[in-house]
Amino acid sequence: MTFYFVQNPVLQQNISNCLSHIVDLATVATNKEHSFSELSLSSFRLSIIIHSATIIEALLFDYMELCFQDSDYEEYKWELDNSKIKVLYNIDEYIRIIGGEQHNNKHVLQKK
Fold this sequence. Notes:
alpha+beta; 2 domains; two-stranded antiparallel ribbon; about 45% helix
């Protein structure tokens, strides 16, 4: 099976390889000619789950590349400016009520 919609050819080939490996594992695991132990079947299932997660991760990575091709992702975080904190009320030695200024600062997250 080819994943023609994936832009990166190396990623496209890796996804195809993972899917082919899943099909092979599922075929062997469900083969009635062999009687596998429960441990072997569990190992087959685990490998199928890991390869399925790899495919999902690769597709999400490709989608992120598509969405943020030309720019990095920007997000805003609320940050407390420590220089302007004032203690309003001390409850005990471990808890105090404070006041201060909080700013919504922009952070640029790079895809890498």
